[in-house]
Amino acid sequence: MTDPVVERGAADAQAKRDDAHGEVTVDEVVLSAELAGDDAAVASPDVAEYALWLGDDALILAQQLGGWIANAPELEEDVALANIALDLLGHARSLLRYAGTADGRTEDDLAYWRDEPEFRCAWLFQQPNGDFAQTIARQLIAATYQFELYRALADSRDATLGAVAAKAVKEVDYHRDHAVQWTLRLAGGTDESRRRMIRALAEVWPYVDELFRDEPLIDRLEGVAVRPSALRPAFDEVIAAVFAEAELEVPEGFVSSGGGRHGRHFSTLGYLLAEMQVLARQHPGATW
Amino acid sequence: MVTDIVTAGVHNSVSAHAPDARAPHFRARADAEATAGLNCEPDARAARAWEAAASVCDPEIPVLTIADLGVLREVAVDGDRVTVTITPTYSGCPAMDAIRDDILLALADAGFGQVDVRLTLAPAWTTDWMTDAGKRKLAAYGIAPPTGRAAAGPVKLALAVKCPRCGSLQTREVTRFGSTSCKALYECGACLEPFDHFKVH
Fold first, then answer.
1. Which of A130, A202, A278, B142 is deepest in the core (most CB within 10 A)?
2. Is the pLDDT of residue A6 over 90?
3. Which domains are present in chain B?
C-alpha cells in the first residue's frame, strides 16, 4: 500500500491548509466528551444517581463561589476562589456527563434543564456565601469532606468514577489547604475576625451531618460508591486538628434534616438555579 | 489491522510500548530514526503524526508544547485514521478546547485527514511528566518551573523556588492560586519582581 500522504501533491496540501477541517471528522460524541474523559462507559441508573449526588454538590458550590468574583476582600482571594470554582466545575462536568449516559442527556441538559426537585446536592453546598468567614467555613467542611470522599472513590470498582476521583483529589487538596489557612488566620486574627469565624462555623455546622448519612442507594452500590458514614472519622480527625490549632470548638446545636439527596432543598437553591439557568432557558441552544 | 501507536508514559493498553515517561517526544524521535532506514512506512507515519501533534503549543504558555507538558499521551495511526489522546492538566482547564482544535489543524497540515482527538482522565496528569527541556523553556520564559516531584504523603515538603529573573532563592509565595490553575504567584526578595511559578502537582 502506498502512502497517501506522500502521493498527495503540493496543490492538494495547499487546499488542505485552506480548508483545514475539510476531511477532519469530529463527531458529536468526541465534542460532548470534551473535558470529561471519553473512556466513560454507560452508567447504570444507580451509578448515574450517585454521580448526580457528587456532580450537583460540585456544580452548586462552583456557582456559589463564582459569586465572589470581583467581590472578594482582596484580589488574590478573587483569583483563588475563582480557581477553586473552576476545578469544581471541571469535576461537575465529568460527573454530570457520566450521569447523563444513563438516559442520553448531556451535561448541559442536566445543569440547565432540570428543576429544583431534580437536583441531588446536599444542603451544605446550598448555604449562602454570607460574609467571607461563612464562605471559608463552608469551604473547610466541603473540601475536607470531598478530599476524603475522592481519595476513597479513586479505588472504586467503577473505572470512570475512579478516574474522576483520582484527578479531583489532587485539586481538592489545594482547596482544603486554602480553607485551613484562612480558618487559622481568621480565628487567630483580630477580635472581629475571630467573632465572625466562630459565628460562621455555628451557621453551617448543622449541615455537616447530612454529608455522612448512608442511603439505600449506597447499599446497592457496594464497591462502587463510597459509604458516607465511613468517611466521618477521617473528617472529624482533620477538623479536630485544625480546630485545636485555631483554638476553636466544634459548634453544638441542632442538626438539619437535610434532604438534598431526595430532591428536598434549602430555600436558597431555587434562586441560585434561576440565575444559573436563565440564559440557557431564554436562548435555547445559544453558543458563544 | 495494524495500529501503530506512539505513546507517552504508562498506558494500560500499550504498556509494553511505554517509553520513558519523562521524555515522550524523545521516544517518538527515536522511533522515527529507528525506522527511517527500514522503509517501514506505518511506523514512519506514526512518528510523523506524533511530531505534528507534539508541535502544538499550550495556548496559555506558548513556549511549551503539549508534549513538553505531558498533556499529549498517545498518537495512534490506523491506516488513514489518527487518534490523538490528550489529558487535561486540571479538571476544569479551559485550554483543552483550543488544544484540541490546534491538534486537528496541525495534523491536517501534516497531511492527516481523519483525526479524532480523545481525552482521558486516567492516569491523572502530574508535573512529573514535564520534560527537562520544557522546564528549561519555562524558566527562560520567566515562569519558575516545578521543583521536585509531586509529593506522596500527608506532609508537604516544598523546595525553594528560584527566581527566573535573577536566580535568587530568596522568594516567597504571594498566593497559591495564580493566573491559571497550574500556576502560583511568587515574589522575589532580591530583585523584588513578581513572577509565576508552575506548581508541583
1. A130
2. no
3. 4-128 (3.30.300.130), 142-198 (no CATH)
| Domain limits, chain A | 4-282
Centroid of chain to Cα B29: 16
Q: How many CB pairs below 8 A link A and B?
A: 136
- Cβ contact (<8 Å) for A20 and B100? no
What cell does A121 get?
Answer: 446536592
Task: Please state at what angle helix A159-187 crosses helix A132-153, rounded to 10 degrees.
Answer: 150
Q: Does the structure's ipTM exceed the value 0.85?
A: no
Question: Per-residue pLDDT averaged across A199-216, rounded?
Answer: 98
Residues B106-121 as b or e (16 or more Cβ within 10 Å = b): bbbebbbbbbbbbbbb
- A141, A223, A254 from A189: Cα distances, Å: 20, 44, 28
Alpha helices in chain B (DSSP H): 24-36, 41-54, 66-69, 95-109, 132-141
Is 3.20.20.80 the CATH classification of the domain at A4-282?
Answer: no
Instruction: Quote the pTM value.
Output: 0.82
Residue A26, C-alpha cell as written in the block: 469530529
- From the list A3, A20, A30, which residue is nearest B116 (CB)? A30
CB contact under 8 Å between B90 and A5, yes or no, is: no
Cα B201 to chain centroid distance, Å, stands at 13
Q: Is B113 close to A163, i.e. CB distance below 8 A?
A: no
